[in-house]
Design a protein that fits this description.
By secondary structure, the chain is α+β, with helices and mostly antiparallel strands. It is built from 18 helices and eleven strands. The protein folds into three domains: 191 residues, Tetratricopeptide repeat domain (Serine Threonine Protein Phosphatase 5, Tetratricopeptide repeat), CATH 1.25.40; 125 residues, Winged helix-like DNA-binding domain superfamily/Winged helix DNA-binding domain (Arc Repressor Mutant, subunit A, Orthogonal Bundle), CATH 1.10.10; 43 residues. The radius of gyration is 26 Å and the shape is elongated.
Length: 406
């Protein structure tokens, strides 16, 4: 390895992309192409970075399998930064295995972290948890340790485990301070700000209260019967009843929770659930049927009793009832709240959950996507919608050349 390649690699490791390019900008050998590709990625020129990394991978000989594997890992990182999630994860898994077998454990861990971050962006929380399980950030270099802890914090926030998320962010901040990479320091600061933003509201007869993430977690752990208008379901302790695909039942539950401990008139329930101002006997019959279905599903948590003028919600065990709503009103607020669990939703499923037409939902999603508040993957019928990551991911690439730095 010549001195220019070594100096360029050290500049990249320190986050000095321009300094790295100055040393190898005119060279076309595979190690220089790989370093140029990483530098271009750190400068935000992702298409050019991918082109250079692919050219470098083709330039390495058959016996240089470790260098080729490092290029595959770097290209996967660029694809992640571009939010191009259409590729197969097999190449990345194969590169990780090659690096692990060749003794390059640092880059093998980098490949594993890229795979976990990809799973987080796709809403595959179980897969991300499996990839992050067993990673000891204390044994990793500071840059990798920061990325690992940011990924752990993102996963914990998606699962609404704010204590674990705060602990992971504290470790991420300590690792970023050791790394002294400005983009990582800024990313940790931005991730920490998620705790200060409004996450939901509680609605009651005497007003509303804005909640932060930790407040929502405490509410769900309190044992109260929570009618969750963010995720469209009922929760009491560890019990969860999902009603996202039963919009009429959820509307009835929401109306009962909003009036608790009072009852709700049949006419008001019909108007909300069936969207009619002139109820007749058919609507009343349908209300009895739908209320019977809700009563059967909610039986482990609450009873629903008929009164002279309507129905009333009676939680089991003397629990209080809390109606949890998105932080903002309207369809856009409801869409953002539904997507906040990190799962991927189709347009039709969102329309069903909201009881709205697909065209209405598509217009709202287009506006939210333009504002960067939702994102989509796939095309046409395969398109799925997700919330943006709670923590953004900076492109911090390791070195694809056969180089180990102290």
């Amino acid at each position: 390895m010549d001195s220019l390649i070594a100096a360029s690699a050290r500049a990249l490791a320190a986050g000095d992309a321009l300094g790295a390019l100055k040393r190898v900008a005119l060279r076309e050998d595979p190690p220089a192409l790989a370093l140029r590709g990483i530098a271009m990625a750190q400068l935000g020129e992702h298409p050019r970075a991918r082109e250079l990394l692919r050219k470098a991978a083709r330039g390495f000989g058959a016996h240089e399998h470790l260098s080729r594997a490092r290029c595959v890992v770097a290209e996967a990182e660029v694809a992640l930064a571009m939010r191009d999630l259409s590729g197969s994860p097999r190449a990345l898994a194969s590169a990780s295995a090659t690096l692990q077998a060749g003794g390059d454990k640092v880059n093998a861990m980098q490949a594993r972290l890229i795979a976990s971050r990809r799973a987080l962006l796709l809403g595959r929380l179980d897969e991300a948890a499996s990839l992050l399980d067993g990673l000891e950030s204390a044994a990793l270099p500071p840059v990798l340790a920061t990325v690992a802890e940011l990924s752990a914090a993102e996963l914990a926030l998606r699962l609404l485990r704010t204590g674990a998320a705060r602990a992971a962010l504290l470790r991420a901040r300590a690792a970023a301070n050791r790394a002294q990479v400005p983009s990582l320091l800024a990313e940790v600061a931005d991730a920490s700000a998620a705790f200060e933003r409004p996450a939901a509201r509680t609605l009651a007869r005497d007003g509303e209260q804005v909640l932060q993430l930790q407040d929502v977690e405490a509410l769900l752990a309190s044992g109260a019967l929570v009618v969750d208008a963010c995720r469209h379901g009922l929760r009491a302790g560890d019990a969860w009843l999902a009603l996202a695909r039963r919009p009429v039942l959820f509307t009835l539950a929401r109306e009962l929770a909003a009036a608790w401990p009072e009852d709700v008139a049949r006419e008001a329930l019909i108007a909300s659930a069936f969207r009619t101002r002139r109820p007749d006997e058919t609507h009343r019959a349908r209300l009895r049927v739908e209320m019977g279905r809700l009563r059967a599903l909610a039986a482990p948590m609450a009873d629903i009793e008929a009164t002279a003028r309507g129905f009333v919600l009676k939680p089991l065990g003397g629990r209080p009832v809390v109606l949890l709503a998105p932080p903002i009103d309207g369809e856009q607020g409801s869409l953002v709240a539904l997507l906040s669990d990190g799962a991927a939703w189709s347009t039709s499923a969102l329309a069903q959950a909201l009881g709205a037409s697909q065209r209405t939902v598509q217009r709202a999603l287009a506006e939210l996507e333009a504002d960067g508040r939702v994102r989509s993957i796939g095309q046409a019928r395969a398109r799925r919608w997700l919330a943006p990551p709670l923590t953004e991911f900076t492109t911090i690439l390791l070195l694809p050349a056969a180089l180990q730095l102290d």
